[in-house]
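Per reviewer request, we include the raw input and output of the structure prediction for the construct analysed in the revised manuscript.
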Amino acid sequence: MTYDQSESKEIPAISRRGFIVTTAAGVAAATAGCAAGTGNARSEAAATTATLGPYDDFRGAIAAFEARGRVVRIARADQDAFEASALMYRLVDRYGAEGAPVVVFEEVKIEGEWIKGPVVGNFIGHWDAEALVFGVEPDPAGGAATLRKARDHLVGLAQANGGRFPEIPPVVIPREKALCKEVVLQGDAIDMTRFGFLKVNPGDGGRYVNTASVFTVDPTAGINFGTYRCQLKGPRKIAVSPGEGQTGWIMLDAARKRGEKVVKVSLVLGQDPIVYLVSGSRVANRTGNRPVDELAVAGGLRGRAVEVVKSDTNDFLVPAHAEMIIEGEIPLDDTEPEGPYGEGLGYQGGGETAWYMNVTTVTHRRNPWMHNSFTGIDRGPVSAAGLASSLLFTQKFAPEVVDMHYRSKANNIMYVSIRKTAAGQAMAIGERLGKFNPVAKVVIMLDDDVNLMDMSQVMFAISSRWQPHPAAKIFEQLPGLPLDPSQPNRNKTSKIIIDATRQWPGEGGPESFPRTNRSILIEKMPNAFTQVDEKWGAIISGWEAGELRG
């Protein structure tokens, strides 16, 4: 499905079914060796194992999503008028952060000029991506059921490997086979402003390279790559702002303190979905002060090694089939203002003092595809791996924890369910989580009969099982999320622990707590749900198509 801004100023009024049915021809033609088809993602039998990940490159993933009806193409978008950003808001408003499609902008107007894309937004935002990128078929029920299925797959993967994700070291391939080396730019031939890097919001300080994996190295910690905000400052100059406390910042600051004057870095753009996931989250375990090979972690999550190639001007091994590699040097004794920038929580972050890199070499695929994050609007990397890591880590000190969940647009509100065996147990676990986890500003403890991915069940439990007194505790000063705009002092926040489990008499609760209607139905008629699923499963999972009858 392609929309041309020159033909219409509005998104056509279409049904949800019509919205998710797109043509795969465009991506299939541009992506050699990638399977693609057409049809509704809920019901099209052809789009099954042929479109399952893991994917070896950015374009292969998009071809697979398009074959499943999860891509919309826009012929032209005037980003000087912020059309691309406004469209992403409209799509998320209508379909939710996890229901909006991948959007491929074929051409984008930037600073008065039409720049050929494609520029891709909301790359792995849809629920289905949570499963597909790991080679797992989405759950027929869709939505959070797919997220849970992917999370459980990753929990099983870690449990089979002694409690942590497996690692498969990367494999170096010959330069001539590396797609990221198809075009080489050096010296005056480099002009980063000619590529489709966007200014997402009118309040931003400029255009941003905001999905790159920034490769840095430390003699003790090893090689790290993280997704940091990188403002485009000129044709061969990019600000690099990891943010204080991030691994990249720690490594650069340590090099400065060692007396180093310049460090070399590589920025990788257009990564496969799992390399992008590892880059943008803390799934790699850095406990124990041991060097960590994050590319090996990505390989373990993929189930096969990441193919890599050496950067042209430094020793970093980078994903060989990325869209673009930007290489350069950061002078550590010089900084520049950077920002402001619209942050992931949906608020404008202030300007900062940042390092910058002088770009020396750029290599890229022919006609590179640009991945742009509409930060604060669309989703970032898939969350299943982070949820799996959090659950496994918490169960090490609290084995009674059954489940954990946080939502993509409110990840500092943490829901935790436990198999409660003692008075005060839930509050004790919640306190410990709040104290060591900087993201956990609100910790809500729930019983194990609550599906944490169903907000109606969560709110039902809070409204009917929780009393603000005495089942809540507030802490005034604990480590917090640096991007939280409500903090008077950065990195410090007050926190609240809410014990919304059924309160026992020893916790101030009633002498007896009534059972839920649902639990009685399950006990008295244990086969009722199975019978309904078998009889009317298609209607339950596909009623939104508007064509199903029972």
